[in-house]
Each structure stands twice: as C-alpha cells, then as structure tokens.
Amino acid sequence: MFISTPNHRPKARIRTQLLRIEYGRALVKSDLLASEEPLEIRLLASSGQVSKKVSEGAKTLAVTMRTPGHDFELAAGFLLAEGVIAGREDIARIAYCTDPGEPQQYNIVNVELKAARLPDLAPLERHFYTTSACGVCGKAGLENLQRRYAPLEAGWTVSSEVIAKLPSQLRAHQPLFAQTGGLHAAALFDRYGNLLALREDVGRHNALDKLLGWALLEYQLPLCEHMVLVSGRASYELVQKALAASIPLLCAISAPSSLAVELAREFNLTLIGFLRDSFNVYSGAERLDIGPSS
Description:
single chain; alpha/beta; Ubiquitin-like (UB roll); Cytidine Deaminase, domain 2; 2 domains; 6-stranded mixed β-sheet; 16 strands
C-alpha cells in the first residue's frame, strides 16, 4: 500500500517555486498549488475493533486521490453513492486512523458501521481503487442501479433564469480555485437557486462525494427538492451519485457523456450541460419552466 502516514494534517494547498517566462525573460516566481494526496477509506463493524490495531478488524474499501479537507464527508458520501450505507443512521463513528502507540494518520479514515459484521461488498462488482480524475474504476451495471433506485418524480419546476444564474454563484464561492486555479467544485442549491453548500477537490467525483457526505452527516437527505451544479463535465458516475441522494436536477458547466444521458433518461433525472448564459437540456425538461420550444 502506498499510503503515506503523516504526523501532521495535510494542507489543501501548498506553495511552490517556478520559473515563469514572460516576453523571452525568465522570472523566478512562487505559486499556490492544489494539494493531491491519497485517502484510504476503511470499514469497521461495530464490535469494538476501533480500539485494536486496524489491521485486525478493518477492511480497506477504497483509495482515492483527493484534496485534503472534509475527509469525513468524502468517506460518508462515497459510501452512500456506492450503496454501502443507506443513511446517517448506518454510521456509528468516523475517525482518522489511530493505532495504539502510533501517530494519527490523516490519510486513512476509519468508518465504523452500526452493524455486527461488514456488509457483503462482492455484488458491487468493483475494484475499489479511485483516482481524482476518473472516480471508481469500473461501474455497476444498469440492472444493479434499477434494483437500488426508482425513477425520480417530477414534483416541482424551476425557471431557466434561475438555472442560468447558478454558475456565477459557483465561481463566487470557490476560494481554493481562486487561489490555485486547479480545483473542481460541486454546489448544492435549493429549488429557488439559493446556494446551500459547496465543496472543492482536485477530483470532480470527490467534490460531489464531499457534498453528499455533508448532506448525509447533517441529516439533509433526501435532496429531492434540490439542484446540484458541477464545474466540469457530467459523467455516468456523477449521475449515479445524484441518484443516490435523490437529486432530481444535475447541471454541468461542460458536456455530459453518452452514458450519463442514458442513465439520466432511464431514471427521469433532469440533466443540463454547457451551462453558461444558455444551456442544453438532455433529459427531464418537464422540471424546467420555459417557454414553448421552436
């Protein structure tokens, strides 16, 4: 395992020296970079193992490259999106790894479940290794998702004017992106366009997991009257994560993938792409309060 074991809490950004070329001249400058470090997510059954060596009672579920910060939310959101847990009530405790006599390891998170034994993870049919770029390697089949989720109900509508204003709110509340220029973001809005929470990370999947983890730990689920905006493209995995939290409307600054559109249509999720002043609606147009199409 390549996990490092720092004695100090890793930072979300670091300063580095660089050489900048301007008009043929070389200048020594400094710059802030978004940090990227591994996070190992481990599961424990609720039978006292947290007081023992983690190797005796814990199971490594995933390793993801992430920007340090909101690590507990990231772990909780990942478990929710993968169907390992159904809600906040399934979690007994989340903590950084601390074996007796050893320093705290801020790149390892232990999640203790309220269960005498760990769930069967084999049906997920995944290799639980993730990167900041691509999410979990592989994906559960559509049949598995159909067993886990029902199509989303329409319920409410939102105006196109409200949707068009979401990107400006996203940009205004991205402090780490403003400093480093190298982070994705996922933002949660209510049906009226009010920003409720925002999380940043080098990985767009991680950013959304952190956001879902926040909602789970704050007892805000399900998010059936909310919208999410992601700063990059909309992938199959991001649509799947939205379904896990019952989010009916997912917006992306960039393009959706073909599988994302297919999955959104299958579960009646409103999927919007290329969101700027205008936008494309790929599915679920009935949730938008717009004029007649031409």
